[in-house]
Each structure stands twice: as structure tokens, then as C-alpha cells.
Amino acid sequence: MSDSFPLRRSHPDELIVGLVSVSDRASSGVYPDQGIPALRDWLASALTRPPQVVARLIPDERVGIAAALRELVDAARCDLVLTTGGTGPARRDVTPEATLDVATREMPGFGEQMRQVSLKFVPTAILSRQVAVIRELPDHAALIINLPGQPKAIRETLEGLRGEDGAVLVPGIFAAVPYCLDLIGGPYVETRDEVVRAFRPKSARRGTGA
């Protein structure tokens, strides 16, 4: 994919997504990055229309993370930016701070729900510091969400938890993402219900002929 910015939509409802994997060791080549491939695969499985993606693999540096987020929103014109890694209590974990540095408003419900999902699996979920924010420009806005670092945890927090009968027990955060994008002027994003069912009020849903 070319990094010729701003990116152009092939369709008015094409989602433009920025993916940022934050890892000192992966960015220096010590081991392969798993975050970006996991996010690409999940988005391909969950969205009915393939998104346009631009990715960045960067070290745990607050200034560099903030710069990457600004580039993806301001220059690339991403509607949604998903980060993975760097959200724990270690001194090098500075992704939340960098995300808040570029925010115009916070969306605390996303972080709260991610921790609720993860607590169903591990008690150390309370150590996670993921945040979500909106970055607003005069003519554009984007939702930025910090996700966990492990592919399994990424999927669980995005999809939520289902029972043996397939019923949703704990909603994943992505169920709220499409409507959030509607409200900030983004494209109309639809999901595959078998992966995650996007929720919109009836008044915000398009007709079947749309």
C-alpha cells in the first residue's frame, strides 16, 4: 500500500483504518510483530466491506506514538485508529499517555468495557490502562482506541464473549464503533453479525434498499 496522503475512498462507505503496533522489540526486529496481522485479519472477518488500511510498527516512545497518531488522523485521514501494545504499568508502557496527548475528548466507556471483558479471563486485567479518544480537526474526526497486545485478547475485547448457544454474554467494544463513527461524521460501517453485531438505534439504521 502506498503512503500517499490523504488516502482516498473507493466508496463513500469505505472505512479508512490506521493500525499502530507499539513494541520496542518487534519494531527493532527482535521478533515478528503479531499485533498488526491480528488486527488486519480480524477486520477482514468482521466488516462487510474491506477497509483501507495503513499500518505503523513503532517503539514505546511517547513522542513517536503521538506523532504516528497525528499522521494517521491528520494526514492519512483515518476514520478509526487501533493501537496494540504498551498499555500496562511498566515504565515503557506509554501508549495511553501518547493517545491522550492527541485527544480532543475522551471516550472512557471503551476502556471500561475492555477491562470487563478481560476480567472474565484473567484477574490482571485491572492492570490494563487502555483508553479511547476522539481527535477532532475542523473538517475531520477520528476515533482512536488502545487495544491489548496479544492477538487472543484483541479478538476477545473486540468481539466480546458468547455462550455455548451463541448468545452474547458480554458485549465487545466494536459493537459500538460503527455508531460512534456515524456520530463523528465517518462512513457507515456494517459488520458481520456472526463475528460482532453492530448496534445502532433504529433511527440511525439504513433501510434494506440503501
From TrEMBL:
Q: Which reaction does it catalyse?
A: molybdopterin + ATP + H(+) = adenylyl-molybdopterin + diphosphate
Q: Which Pfam families match?
A: MoCF_biosynth (PF00994)
Q: Which UniProt keywords apply?
A: ATP-binding, Molybdenum cofactor biosynthesis, Nucleotide-binding, Nucleotidyltransferase, Transferase
| UniProt key word Nucleotide-binding | yes
Q: In which pathway does it act?
A: Cofactor biosynthesis; molybdopterin biosynthesis
**Family, per the entry?**
Belongs to the MoaB/Mog family.
Q: Could you tell me what this protein is called?
A: Molybdopterin adenylyltransferase
Tell me which species this is from: Castellaniella defragrans (Alcaligenes defragrans)
